[in-house]
Amino acid sequence: METMTETRQNTANIVAGNIRAEASRLGFTQVELGRQLGMSQTSITTRWKGSRPWQLHELDAVAAILGVTVADLVTEPDSRPRGTRTPNLRIKSPLLYH
Question: Of all residues in the chain, what percent carry a pLDDT higher than 90?
Answer without folding.
Answer: 56
